[in-house]
Amino acid sequence: MAKRGSLHIGTSGWHYKHWVGPFYPEGTRPSAMLDTYAGRLSALEINNSFYRLLSPKALEQWRAATPDDFVFFDNDAEGNAPRDALRLLKRLEQD
Fold first, then answer.
1. Partners of 24 in the β-ladder
2. Domain map of the chain by residue range?
3. Beta strand 43-46 pairing with 71-74
4. How confident is residue 58, by pLDDT bands cut at 50, 70 and 90?
5. Four-point Cα dihedral 72, 37, 92, 81, nearest 10
6. Which of 64, 69, 66 is nearest to 84 (CA)?
7. pLDDT tens for residues 1-39?
8. N or C, which end of the chain has less CB nearby within 10 Å?
């Protein structure tokens, strides 16, 4: 969990082919993009939850692929402002 008063920098997605070269090293496979991203930035907006609910399996895989202090923000289908990782983790625990 993020420390109080810490600053996290991130983007609204990580799996973009056109980022290979400018952001990801040449040859980075899509399956390695989240791990590589999390090694360079400390937060990520999950923007695909705007279109559909995420599965608990996907959330667990993303959590396992990122450091403990990595922060996910959710952009939900109602268009609400992004929320912190606790909301996502609570959803995991409920399912």
1. 20
2. 10-94
3. parallel
4. confident
5. 20
6. 69
7. 556 677 888 988 898 999 999 999 999 999 999 999 999
8. C
HEC secondary structure over the chain: CCCCCCCCCEECCCCCHHHECCCECCCCCHHHHHHHHHCCCCEEEEHHHHCCCCCHHHHHHHHHCCCCCCEEEECCCCCCCCECHHHHHHHHHHC
For the segment 38-51, what is each residue's pLDDT rounded down to a tens digit? 999 999 988 765 66
Both ends of the chain: CA-CA distance in Å?
21
Structure tokens, 78: 């109602």
* Strand arrangement of the beta sheet that strand 10-11 belongs to: 10-11, 43-46, 71-74
